[in-house]
Amino acid sequence: MNMSLSSLPHKVIGVAVIWNEQGKILIDKRRPLGLHGGFWEFPGGKIEPGETMEACIEREIMEELGIVIAVGARLMTIEHDYTNFTVTLCVHNCRYLSGEPQTLECDEIRWVTLEEIDQFTFPKVNEQIIAVLRKNYGVN
Ligand SMILES: Nc1nc2c([nH]c(=O)n2[C@H]2C[C@H](O)[C@@H](COP(=O)(O)OP(=O)(O)OP(=O)(O)O)O2)c(=O)[nH]1
Ligand SMILES: [Mg+2]
C-alpha cells in the first residue's frame, strides 16, 4: 500500500454531462489559475456533507452556470490520483431545463456535439468520459 497516496486529501466530485434538445453537451473552460486552469471540463464540483449526489450536481450547476437541470442516471464513476489529491468523479447524464448559461465561475461556455468535442483540451482523465459518451451516443 502506498502510504503517501492514502494520506492525500480526497475529493468526491459530481460531474454533469448536460444535454440540450439539439443533442449538444455543455462544457466550460476553467479559469486560468490552478492545476487545470484553462482546461475545458464538464461542469460540477465537490459534494457537501449530507448531500445526495443528485442535489450536489443540481446545486453546482446553478452556482457555476445559473441554469436548471434534471440530473439523470450515473454514466460512470472514475477514481483518479492527482499529485496532491485523489478524486472520485461521479458522472451523471443530465438534461438542460431552463435559464441562460452564464460564466459565473468559469471563463467560457460552449454547447458542443460529440464530433466537435475533440477540439477542446480536457484533463487527461476526461478521455474516459468522452470515450463512453462516443460509445453510447456517438454516430460512429
Ligand atoms: N467538474 C469537473 N471536475 C473535473 C473534471 N475532470 C477532472 O479531472 N476534474 C477534477 C479537477 C478538479 O480538481 C475537481 C473539480 O473540483 P472543483 O470544480 O470543485 O474545483 P476545484 O478542485 O478547483 O475546487 P476546490 O477544491 O479548489 O474548492 O475534479 C471534469 O470534467 N469536471
Ligand atoms: Mg467546479
From TrEMBL:
<feature type="domain" description="Nudix hydrolase">
    <location>
        <begin position="8"/>
        <end position="136"/>
    </location>
</feature>
<dbReference type="InterPro" id="IPR003561">
    <property type="entry name" value="Mutator_MutT"/>
</dbReference>
<dbReference type="InterPro" id="IPR047127">
    <property type="entry name" value="MutT-like"/>
</dbReference>
<dbReference type="InterPro" id="IPR015797">
    <property type="entry name" value="NUDIX_hydrolase-like_dom_sf"/>
</dbReference>
<dbReference type="Pfam" id="PF14815">
    <property type="entry name" value="NUDIX_4"/>
</dbReference>
<keyword id="KW-0479">Metal-binding</keyword>
<keyword id="KW-0460">Magnesium</keyword>
<dbReference type="InterPro" id="IPR020084">
    <property type="entry name" value="NUDIX_hydrolase_CS"/>
</dbReference>
<comment type="similarity">
    <text>Belongs to the Nudix hydrolase family.</text>
</comment>
<keyword id="KW-0235">DNA replication</keyword>
<protein>
    <recommendedName>
        <fullName>8-oxo-dGTP diphosphatase</fullName>
        <ecNumber>3.6.1.55</ecNumber>
    </recommendedName>
</protein>
<keyword id="KW-0227">DNA damage</keyword>
<keyword id="KW-0378">Hydrolase</keyword>
<keyword id="KW-0234">DNA repair</keyword>
<dbReference type="InterPro" id="IPR020476">
    <property type="entry name" value="Nudix_hydrolase"/>
</dbReference>
<keyword id="KW-0515">Mutator protein</keyword>
<dbReference type="InterPro" id="IPR000086">
    <property type="entry name" value="NUDIX_hydrolase_dom"/>
</dbReference>
<dbReference type="GO" id="GO:0035539">
    <property type="term" value="F:8-oxo-7,8-dihydrodeoxyguanosine triphosphate pyrophosphatase activity"/>
</dbReference>
<dbReference type="InterPro" id="IPR029119">
    <property type="entry name" value="MutY_C"/>
</dbReference>
